[in-house]
Design a protein that fits this description.
The complex is a heterodimer. By secondary structure, chain A is α/β, with parallel strands linked by helices. Chain A is built from eight helices and nine strands. In chain A, the strands form two sheets. A six-stranded mixed sheet of chain A has the order 5-6-7-3-8-9, with helices on both faces. Chain A has a three-stranded antiparallel sheet with strand order 2-1-4, covered by helices on one side. Chain A is globular. By secondary structure, chain B is mainly alpha-helical. Chain B has two domains: 142 residues, no CATH class; 71 residues. In chain B, helix 1 runs antiparallel to helix 4, helix 5 packs antiparallel against helix 6 and helix 6 packs across helix 7. Classes of the chains: A alpha/beta, B mainly alpha.
Chain lengths: 240, 238
């Protein structure tokens, strides 16, 4: 198994505060790693430092077999590791969906025509072709998330870094996202508070505590509680 | 100069800048620049941001200074093809440069260390219309937000392997970035306005009683008045 990312005791500070303090981690090919931890413990910082949006103060970061130093090295890392931002609104900036999805492929050096083709192909794979010519900032929240994901996937990344991908998704978009990610053969690091989602997807769990990464595990035990849901028709008799 | 009340600073800056812009002779203009420079250095703020701000001003001025010697009529000093450089125009350009720099330095010296919110409240107490104060306060509040927005978007672009080049793709991407920041700013403003209305905003911001006391409430504007009058006198004396 090849290691895609290796962190060896890295230290990262944000705003003068040491957020990661001796965090170590290896992401292998084909792995889907769940990263959990309370708010503000540095999960997003960890993802950002993998692609050089945060500077590693100490320790070593190895990405795809090399130790990137400086912006130039990280460019090639970013071309291979796709990062899905927590807020899709931060990611979508082109007027139309097709432009936005083609943005990454264009950056990778594809011709405008090939990039548009690649974008269409990616949208079709994700069953999102109907959104192709829509205006990005008028999409619904769930559509924005999926289009942002399409923009990342159009670059054919080897690793996906997902920051709270299920935030504020309705059931339909949630299922769609789960299906898409389940079918993808690429390695992932998934930051989420959604245990069910992580359990369906992840092959391994690590927890971030006090700046360090600790191995964790899913635990499941029988547990009964009411199944709360909402019926459009009101409180009618029905079966499950 | 620490501990001087914001409204005393604001009033003093207003008096001095008013005096500076009325100056006509090079001597008084030079003296004003000297005074402003001394005040800026005395204010005890870091010099680097000052130079940064001045660089912006100089860039803005450059065009004017290049144009004036050619466009103001007067006896020609030298000629460049069909264009004449007039002594009159050269003097006026120099005067404008001196006055603008003096005004910027005065603003920096007296107001640079005051937090924008305090400055807004001080202006309100000095009788500046509440709409203008609100505009000022919102602007200072949202500049930071804008910067953050642009920074996050640029990060998102970099995360998708964007590299700045002088290519059509680069130009188009920056155009899209600028457009989207504007669209988002408008939407954000609407959302903020809605949220404010939900909290019973009726167009007036209550003036929260920020502590505006400090030293030199009288002495500082008096000194400014004295210095301003001296400059004007120096200028108007035969």
């Amino acid at each position: 198994m090849t290691a895609l990312f290796t962190l060896d005791a890295i230290t990262v500070s944000r705003g003068g505060k040491r957020v990661l303090d001796g965090a170590s981690l290896t992401l292998h090919e084909g792995e889907r790693l769940a990263l959990v931890g309370p708010n503000g413990t540095g999960k997003t910082t960890l993802l950002r430092s993998l692609i050089g949006l945060e500077t590693v103060d100490r320790g070593t970061l190895t990405a795809f077999g090399v130790q990137p130093r400086g912006e130039k090295d990280f460019r090639s890392v970013r071309a291979r590791a796709g990062y899905l931002f927590q807020d899709a609104d931060d990611q979508l900036f082109c007027p139309t969906v097709i432009d936005d999805v083609a943005f990454g492929p264009l950056n990778l050096g594809l011709s405008p025509r090939a990039a548009a083709e690649k974008a269409r192909e990616t949208l079709a794979q994700l069953h999102l072709s109907h959104l192709c010519d829509r205006i990005t900032h008028r999409l619904s929240g769930g559509e924005k998330r999926l289009i942002a994901l399409a923009g990342v996937l159009a670059m054919e990344p080897e690793v996906l870094l997902l920051d709270e991908p299920t935030n504020a998704l309705d059931d339909g978009h949630y299922r769609r996202l789960l299906e898409i990610l389940t079918d993808l053969p690429v390695a992932m690091i998934i930051v989420s508070h959604d245990r069910l989602f992580l359990h369906r997807l992840a092959t391994r769990v690590v927890a971030l505590r006090a700046g360090k990464l600790l191995p964790a595990a899913f635990h499941s035990h029988p547990h009964t509680h009411d199944h709360l849901h909402i019926h459009v028709e009101g409180d009618i008799a029905h079966r499950h | 100069m620490n501990g001087i009340a914001p409204r005393a600073r604001l009033l003093s800056a207003f008096i001095l800048i008013l005096a500076v812009v009325s100056l006509r002779g090079l001597m008084a203009q030079g003296a004003a620049l000297g005074l402003a420079l001394i005040l800026a250095l005395l204010s005890g703020q870091a010099v680097k941001p000052l130079l940064h701000r001045l660089a912006h001003v100089e860039g803005f001025m450059a065009l004017l200074l290049l144009m004036l010697p050619f466009t103001v009529p007067g006896p020609p000093l030298a000629s460049l093809g069909p264009l004449n450089v007039s002594a009159e125009g050269l003097l006026r350009a120099l005067g404008i440069a001196l006055k603008v720099n003096a005004a910027v330095l005065l603003g920096f010296a007296l107001l640079g260390a005051v937090e924008p919110v305090r400055l807004g409240h001080a202006a309100r107490r000095l009788g500046v219309p509440v709409r203008l104060v609100q505009l000022f306060l919102f602007t200072t509040r949202y500049i930071e937000l804008f910067r953050d927005e642009i920074r996050r978007r640029r990060e998102a672009m970099r995360a998708r392997a964007f590299v700045r080049r002088s290519s059509l793709h680069s130009f188009r991407s920056y155009g899209n970035l600028a457009g989207m920041v504007l669209v988002r700013a408008l939407e954000k403003a609407q959302r903020v306005e809605e949220a404010m209305r939900c909290r019973a905003f009726d167009g007036r911001l209550p003036a929260i009683g920020l502590d505006d006391r400090g030293r030199g409430e009288i002495a500082c504007p008096a000194l400014a008045l004295f210095a301003g009058a001296a400059l004007v006198l120096l200028d108007r004396m035969p």
